[in-house]
């Protein structure tokens, strides 16, 4: 196994991050430029994987024709999506410019002739992202994506339980923990079982928080502390930087938060949940980086 590169000067120059204070931090686009300038291309590629959930959402907007305001944090632009579409429609074989899982979704949509099944596509895109992260060869990404997927599955489970609908279509992956959640749902029991996941019980307790913004903050703090746990022995490596990147996005999220934004988040959550009652599906937040 090749030794991890050490970024002594870059890491030493990073701003200290506090969960509830980051008003002087530059925006994410500027920080990504710093990463690109200071990281080896292979390590910068690892950092770019954390932004694929934005690309997933942007691709859905593109396929729906609602791409006037794509999220800027993604790796790919509207022009990239259009170019990939041209490549798929071309008679001559050309090299794809998007990840294979995105190309597959675009190709299927192009050839299906039916309306977009957004929920199915959203799940397929997220699973494609998870597979790329797990196959990256990076230890931090493997641990982080498993944790974050478990967290999202817990919320899908809880939303489904509250609405009395089957959570299986919303579950990401088919691991032991996912099966535990499905068995718990089918048993109709409360959350008294002993989970294989060491952090599941703590997440369940946080999820019971009634105040929406407080729950969001406690979940982000739990993410923050988990990052500290899995990077405790990492000094100046890409793993430490990847953890810092996620923390950076968390700080930026709360810096940009104001009461009006919080109300909008809650209204969006309620509206989204109500629409899933009608369709029989519930969406969990698919952002790896907030």
Gross geometry: globular
Count of runs of 4 or more consecutive helical residues: 13
* N-end to C-end Cα span: 32 Å
Main β sheet profile: none
Question: In oligomeric terms, what are we looking at?
Answer: single chain
Report the sheet-strand fraction: under 5%
User: What helical percentage do the residues reach?
Assistant: 55-70%
Mean pLDDT: 84
SSE succession: HHHHHHHHHHHHH
* Quantity of strands, as a count: 0
| Global structural class | mainly alpha
Give the total of domains: 1
**Low-pLDDT windows of residues:** 276-284
Radius of gyration: 20 Å
What's a concise summary of this model?
This protein is mainly alpha-helical and 290 residues long. 63% of the residues lie in helices and 0% in strands.
Description:
The protein has 290 residues and is mostly helical. 63% of the residues lie in helices and 0% in strands. The chain has one domain (21-279). The longest helix has 25 residues, at 139-163. The protein is globular and about 50 Å long.
């Amino acid at each position: 196994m090749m030794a991890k590169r050490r970024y002594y000067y870059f890491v030493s120059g990073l701003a200290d991050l506090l969960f509830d204070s980051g008003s002087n931090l530059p925006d994410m686009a500027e920080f990504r430029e710093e990463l690109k300038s200071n990281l080896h291309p292979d390590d910068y590629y690892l950092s770019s994987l954390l932004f694929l959930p934005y690309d997933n959402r942007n691709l859905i907007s593109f396929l729906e024709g609602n791409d006037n305001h794509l999220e800027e944090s993604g790796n790919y632009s509207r022009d990239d999506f259009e170019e990939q579409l041209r490549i798929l429609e071309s008679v001559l074989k050309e090299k794809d410019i998007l990840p294979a899982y995105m190309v597959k979704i675009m190709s299927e949509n192009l050839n299906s002739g039916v309306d977009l099944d957004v929920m199915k596509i959203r799940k397929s895109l997220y699973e494609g992202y998870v597979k790329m992260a797990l196959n990256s060869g990076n230890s931090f990404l493997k641990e982080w994506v498993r944790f974050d997927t478990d967290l999202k599955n817990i919320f899908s489970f809880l939303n489904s339980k509250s609405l009395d609908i089957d959570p299986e279509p919303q579950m990401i992956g088919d691991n032991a923990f996912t099966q535990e959640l499905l068995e718990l749902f089918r048993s109709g029991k409360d959350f008294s079982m002993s989970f294989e996941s060491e952090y599941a019980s703590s997440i369940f307790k946080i999820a019971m928080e009634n105040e929406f913004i407080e729950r969001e903050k406690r979940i982000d703090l739990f993410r923050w502390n988990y990052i500290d746990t899995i990077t405790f022995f990492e000094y100046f490596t890409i793993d430490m930087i990847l953890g810092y990147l996620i923390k950076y996005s968390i700080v930026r999220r709360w810096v940009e938060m104001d009461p009006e934004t919080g109300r909008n988040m809650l209204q969006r959550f309620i509206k989204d949940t109500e629409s899933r009652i009608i369709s029989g599906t519930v969406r969990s937040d698919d952002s790896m980086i907030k």
